[in-house]
Design a protein that fits this description.
The complex is a heterodimer of chains A (about 300) and B (about 280).
Chain A: H1 3-15, H2 20-56, H3 67-107, H4 111-121, H5 129-139, H6 145-152, H7 167-191, H8 195-203, H9 208-219, H10 221-236, H11 240-245, H12 253-264, H13 267-297
Helix pairs in contact in A: 2-13, 3-4, 3-7, 3-10, 3-13, 5-7, 7-10, 8-9, 10-13, 12-13
Chain B: H1 2-13, H2 16-44, E1 46-48, E2 58-59, H3 62-67, H4 73-105, H5 111-123, H6 127-139, H7 146-170, H8 174-182, H9 187-216, H10 219-224, H11 232-241, H12 245-269, H13 272-275
Antiparallel strand pairs in B: 1-2
The chains are: A mainly alpha (about 300), B mainly alpha (about 280).
Chain lengths: ~300, ~280
């Protein structure tokens, strides 16, 4: 609660001739208003997460066991690595794309090109993952537009055309969908920077890419990290894209979870797999916290 | 006009090969953005499209007729999707508006912690949540019901709704409320006639966000909705996995329309003063 809030509260109390006990009633009312929303989060979010953690460690008779993790590791070790690899690669590519686009939007000298780019890059932002999956399923297929354009340009022999619907397809779909989100955050942060450092560096003759890397990026690192960590976590739990682009082994862990449940009704191994992906997401959060703590101490 | 004027100057300043390079890069980027969408569009209107051909051999509307047939699945799914999304908006706003108001205006000791709790569902993978909700719902008979799907969607939509509603209330000028109270309005009258109307654009924006999230949601519905609730995303998924690219593409286009329409109008509802208060 900010100082302005408490001041306005005190003023309200004074105006209305309220006593201190009335203010306490007001505080209880505040919790009553927030209560239902918090209860929904607790019941439909925190509780299922806790259940996941319990079920992953519980054997048939209710005893503590690690057998579900053993089984998960035996069966889906490759998929775990596959998932981490894909999500990490996508996160790095999203970061690079977002920095390049947001950088040009901030430093670009051709206003018309900046306007066109600003109009272009946002389109995938509001397109749902499930539609992204379908869009890429047609675009990247052997008979997709990508191959036709590459063949038409003479870069690929017609007979050498191949489908990109494997791990590469998942990465392309993730970057296509998530890079605009991070770009939007990053471009907003860059736009609110003070321009004097940038202008000073430009006046000293620094090329634009140096200004971007040495002057602008260090100041917006926090925003970039938030966007990347949120994207990282989102991609970890997307089911539709891997299911539509690359459902066969090796595939992402979300597909394995759906398979364990739909085909075997095996909630124990599914929860063990879920817990593994939670740990991976936890690494993302830890990475973020470590970096933000470091920038805080600076 | 001044933007065009400066762009003319910049154009004159930079050399022609440079301009050409920029234009080429932008064209390439436009292909990356719109190429996949164009491909979807072609499939939606293709009657026949076999391998070596670059474009569909025949265009037509046979599949559109099939999708929009009176007894077709698509219209039923569209109806289900919209019904679920409306109920989700209703349910999440009923709890999000009081919470948003309290977070923006009233005294809460753990305010930032509470705001953080509402961020949790965005920051943690949702799959374990859906899996276990589905297991519990199955036992109590909520799996495959509209109510079950609405509960799952509302719990997730609530997050955005609370954050935006809180920002919308925070952007309302306190002195207007004080004026209303000073001339004798009760707290409830003041909220109903002053605060709520002024916060309305932001609240509408949060309602649209929740509506779209519900409309596009796949994973939760996939686990909780089976086998009786088929929303549009599920129908699209089934058509696509069944190899029916035309039906899948037409359904995908149906899902795209509200999203893109929203992108074009979002700035009208979500003004900069509300955006500046998000997370404060």
């Amino acid at each position: 609660m900010s100082r302005a809030d408490s001041r306005s509260l005190a003023r309200n109390c004074a105006v209305l001739g309220m006593t201190k006990s009335d203010a306490t009633v007001g505080a209880w009312r505040a919790y009553a208003l927030v209560g239902p929303a918090l209860a929904v989060i607790a019941v439909f979010f925190v509780l299922p997460l806790a259940m996941s953690a319990v079920l992953a460690f519980r054997g048939k008779t209710g005893e503590f066991t690690l057998e579900h993790f053993d089984k998960s590791w035996d069966l889906y070790r490759t998929d775990l690595m596959f998932t981490i690899g894909i999500v990490l690669l996508s996160t790095v590519l999203i970061g690079v794309v977002a920095i390049v686009i947001a950088g040009y939007l901030t430093l670009g000298e051709n206003p018309r090109a900046v306007a066109v780019l600003r109009w272009l890059y946002r389109w995938p932002l509001f397109i749902p993952f499930i539609v992204t999956g379908q869009v890429m399923r047609t675009f990247l297929a052997k008979n997709g537009m990508l191959n036709h354009v590459l063949i038409g340009a003479g870069w690929v022999e017609p007979l050498a055309a191949q489908s990109v619907l494997d791990w590469r397809g998942i990465v392309v779909a993730f970057v296509w969908k998530q890079a605009p989100f991070v770009t939007l955050l990053l471009a907003g942060a860059m736009a609110s920077l003070e321009t004097q450092h940038i202008e000073a560096a430009r006046n000293l003759g620094a090329p634009r890419w140096r200004v971007l890397i040495d002057v602008i990026l260090p100041q917006v690192r926090g925003t970039l990290l938030v966007g990347l960590v949120l994207s990282f976590v989102t991609m970890l739990s997307v089911l539709s894209v891997p299911l539509m682009i690359n459902p066969n082994s090796p595939t992402m862990m979300t597909v394995d979870v759906a398979y364990r449940i739909n085909t075997h009704g095996d909630y124990a191994v599914a929860n063990a797999l879920c817990l593994m992906s939670l740990v991976v997401a936890g690494f993302g959060a830890w990475f973020y916290l470590r970096h933000s703590a470091r920038s805080f101490s600076q | 006009m001044s933007a065009i004027g400066t762009s003319m100057n910049a154009g004159a300043a930079s050399s022609w090969p440079r301009m050409f390079g920029i234009a080429l890069l932008l064209a390439l980027f436009a292909f990356v953005i719109f190429g996949p969408l164009a491909n979807l569009f072609l499939w939606a209107f293709a009657e026949k499209w076999y391998f070596p051909s670059k474009l569909p051999q025949e265009f037509g509307f046979t599949f559109w007729a099939r999708v929009f047939a009176p007894r077709g699945n698509a219209l039923t799914s569209l109806g289900t999707s919209i019904w679920i999304a409306l109920l989700t908006v209703l349910m999440s706003l009923i709890v999000a508006i009081p919470a948003g108001y309290a977070l923006a205006r009233l005294r809460l000791r753990w305010r930032s912690l509470i705001l953080l709790a509402f961020l949790l569902p965005q920051a943690v993978p949702n799959l374990p949540v859906y899996v276990n909700i589905a297991r519990v719902f199955y036992e109590i008979g909520l799996n495959g019901t509209i109510l079950g799907v609405v509960l799952v969607h509302a719990a997730h939509g609530l997050v955005l709704a609370v954050w935006i509603a809180s920002a919308a209330f925070a952007s309302v000028d306190v002195s207007l409320e004080e004026a209303a109270r000073n001339i004798g309005a009760s707290p409830w009258t003041c909220f109903r006639t002053v605060t709520l109307p002024l916060a309305a654009p932001g609240l509408i924006a949060s309602a649209i966000f929740v509506f779209l999230e519900s409309l596009d949601e796949f994973t939760g519905t996939y686990f909780v909705g089976v086998p009786d609730v088929t929303t549009l995303p599920l129908l699209m998924f089934n058509a696509s996995m069944g190899g029916n690219y035309q039906i899948a593409s037409i359904t995908a286009l149906l899902l795209l329309v509200p999203s893109i329409a929203f992108m074009l109008v979002v700035e009208r509802f979500l003004k900069a003063d509300v955006l500046a208060m998000v997370g404060r």
